[in-house]
């Protein structure tokens, strides 16, 4: 038995690099159950009140001081107001379990973050019920034409982390920025913003990051890779009346490689995918865009290295190479005016080793469609298979193809949650329910949280009546996720209250070690015993070690499985 268990632990490590573009395991090193066994810090014991009037920011910071080096910071169901921005740094082996809804209660003019994690390891932010949310009430900025303000969530640096089973709603500016992080995972999320530029869904840079099963509504970036990215896997993404997924904007010193986008469904958005730059330098290589499906989008394959919406950057252009677009289908609006395929590469730095395969998109107006390629070399459609000119010399090739016959197989299914209209910028945006599918015919890689969670809130509804850990069940029962309740009324806190900017940093140290080849759990350094004011009751453990498998239903692409070990996840074929 020991030998078999050890083999099961070793096998995912051996197979991880075979999947997609990931280079190894992603996610926390320890499970929520292991963190909870160390310590639990309930924010109600630190002064938080679920009344949508009392600041929850400082209680979270105070709880992190006790649980940020091992433990779970628990935010029970209820409505909370945040007037103190939370910046947590140098934490390890901790989790924030957000089962309530946090409302922005201050309106700074700065581009600060309501929640920021920096230089931390082995951590996660999640809801055990899939009903936790951060409501930014951005419309209070936007209704007066102001689109510069605070952002919701930032992960800066750090390693071995995850964010999942949450909703981020109506940010005054960007919703979720990942910057320079490693070994991360984002999944089972709904992001819903206003119908305006500058309200990005997810912007990511870093190494070895898996983003999957996410729905985004806005009118700017859906899930976008920025420069400084390597080994990024983005799949099962639902751009539901959004800006669409993209790469960029890219400028001087660009460095992007080994990125896969797979199973991307885009409805009524700016584009199916856009690569955007204007001049600049650096490289983009080893990229795969596979299984894209869309309807009613303004652009489809929009590869534009002379993008007029950004200022021209000094340089002969970024060197794009080894990029494949495979199995795209659906429709575009006004396809007679905007090419279904636009690959516009720099004249002095032509794109090389490109491939367009199985591309079946059509103009919704039905007359003809355009394919446009410039200085782009490779195979398929309007790409040139001629010899590539010497880099740095003017010349190259351009072509415009008029397509008069619809391609076979362009018809594509739709999703039940496709929005009939976008959300505006002058009224509150309701908190969405996280969907049960993010791409036609596929279920999430991980079930939405709540399938294994017990109702902690019913075990002790207030901080005045906390049972001991022995009073809580020692098992996890199944709980059916209910419909998300209506959004509570906006707090009466003045909209222009200046927030308290506060942060807490624990002394820098190495994260707890994890022995992946042993049958026992990783060691977590103990913290001092909890004080009498700190709850020690167990919170719900959502992701213990287990193996799951998802089988796509009749769609192209490769099937994927993953093995989850001690909270870390190892995707593999």
Task: Indicate the topology.
Layout: H1 2-15, H2 32-38, E1 40-42, H3 57-67, E2 71-75, E3 79-82, E4 84-89, E5 92-98, E6 101-104, E7 113-118, E8 121-126, E9 132-135, H4 139-142, E10 151-156, E11 159-169, E12 176-192, E13 202-217, E14 223-240, E15 245-250, E16 254-267, E17 271-277, E18 282-297, E19 299-304, E20 319-332, E21 341-344, E22 351-363, E23 369-374, E24 376-379, E25 398-403, H5 456-459, E26 500-505, E27 546-550, E28 560-565, E29 568-572
Parallel strand pairs: 1-2, 2-5, 3-6, 4-7, 4-26, 5-8, 6-9, 7-10, 8-11, 9-11, 10-12, 11-12, 12-13, 13-14, 14-15, 14-16, 15-17, 16-18, 17-19, 18-20, 19-21, 20-22, 21-23, 22-24
Antiparallel strand pairs: 23-25, 27-28, 28-29
Give a brief rundown of this model:
The protein has 573 residues and is mainly beta.
Structure description:
With 573 residues, the protein is mainly β. It has 2 domains: 1-194 and 472-573, Single-stranded right-handed beta-helix, Pectin lyase-like (Pectate Lyase C-like, 3 Solenoid); 214-422, Pectate Lyase C-like (3 Solenoid), CATH 2.160.20. The chain has 5 helices and 29 strands. The protein has helices spanning 2-15, 32-38, 57-67, 139-142, 456-459, and strands at 40-42, 71-75, 79-82, 84-89, 92-98, 101-104, 113-118, 121-126, 132-135, 151-156, 159-169, 176-192, 202-217, 223-240, 245-250, 254-267, 271-277, 282-297, 299-304, 319-332, 341-344, 351-363, 369-374, 376-379, 398-403, 500-505, 546-550, 560-565, 568-572. The strands form 2 sheets. The chain has a 26-stranded mixed β-sheet that branches. Mean pLDDT is 81; it is low at 1-19, 452-499 and 508-567.
């Amino acid at each position: 038995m020991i030998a078999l268990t050890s083999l099961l632990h070793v096998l995912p490590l051996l197979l991880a690099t075979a999947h997609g573009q990931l280079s190894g395991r992603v996610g926390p090193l320890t499970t929520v159950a292991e963190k909870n066994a160390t310590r639990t810090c309930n924010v109600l014991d630190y002064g938080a009140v679920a009344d949508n009037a009392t600041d929850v920011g400082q209680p979270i910071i105070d709880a992190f001081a006790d649980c940020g080096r091992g433990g779970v910071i628990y935010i029970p169901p209820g409505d909370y107001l945040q007037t103190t921005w939370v910046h947590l740094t140098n934490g390890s082996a901790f989790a924030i379990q957000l089962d309530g809804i946090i409302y922005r209660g201050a309106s700074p003019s700065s581009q600060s973050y309501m929640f920021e994690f920096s230089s931390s390891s082995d951590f996660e932010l999640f809801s055990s019920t899939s009903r936790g949310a951060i409501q930014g009430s951005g419309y209070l900025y936007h209704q007066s034409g102001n689109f510069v303000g605070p952002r919701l969530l930032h992960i800066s640096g750090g390693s071995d982390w995850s964010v999942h089973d949450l909703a981020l709603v109506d940010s005054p500016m960007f919703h979720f920025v990942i910057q320079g992080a490693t070994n991360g995972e984002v999944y089972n999320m709904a992001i819903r913003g206003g119908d305006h530029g500058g309200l990005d869904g997810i912007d990511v840079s870093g190494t070895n990051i898996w983003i999957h099963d996410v729905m985004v509504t806005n009118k700017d970036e859906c899930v976008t890779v920025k420069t400084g990215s390597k080994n990024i896997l983005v799949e099962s993404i639902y751009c539901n009346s959004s800006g669409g997924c993209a790469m960029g904007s890219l400028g001087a010193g660009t460095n992007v490689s080994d990125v896969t986008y797979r199973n991307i469904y885009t409805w009524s958005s700016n584009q199916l995918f856009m690569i955007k730059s204007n001049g600049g330098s650096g490289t983009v290589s080893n990229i795969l865009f596979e299984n894209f499906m869309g309807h009613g989008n303004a652009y489809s394959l929009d590869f534009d290295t002379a993008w007029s919406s950004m200022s021209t950057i000094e340089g002969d252009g970024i060197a794009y190479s080894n990029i494949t677009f495979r199995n795209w289908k659906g429709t575009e609006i006004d396809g007679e005016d905007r090419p279904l395929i636009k690959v516009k590469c720099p004249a002095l730095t032509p794109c090389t080793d490109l491939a367009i395969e199985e591309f079946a998109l059509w103009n919704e107006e039905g007359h003809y469609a355009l394919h446009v390629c410039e200085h782009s070399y490779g195979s398929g459609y309007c790409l040139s298979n001629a010899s590539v000119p010497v880099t740095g010399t003017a010349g190259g090739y351009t072509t415009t193809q008029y397509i008069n016959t619809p391609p076979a197989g362009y018809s594509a299914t739709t999703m039940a949650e496709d929005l009939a209209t976008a959300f505006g910028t002058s009224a509150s945006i309701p908190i969405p329910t996280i969907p049960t599918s993010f791409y036609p015919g596929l279920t999430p890689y991980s079930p939405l949280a709540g399938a294994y969670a017990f109702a902690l809130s019913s075990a002790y509804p207030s901080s005045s009546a906390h049972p001991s850990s022995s009073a809580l069940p020692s098992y996890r029962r199944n709980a059916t996720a209910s419909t998300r309740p209506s959004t509570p009324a906006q707090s009466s806190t003045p909209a222009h209250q200046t927030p308290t900017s506060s942060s807490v940093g624990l002394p820098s140290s190495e994260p707890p070690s994890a022995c992946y080849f042993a049958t026992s759990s990783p060691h977590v350094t103990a913290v001092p015993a909890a004080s009498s004011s700190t709850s020690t009751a167990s919170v719900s453990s959502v992701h213990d070690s287990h193996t799951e498998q998802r089988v796509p239903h009749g769609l192209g692409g490769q099937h994927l499985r993953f093995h989850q070990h001690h909270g870390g996840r190892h995707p593999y074929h």
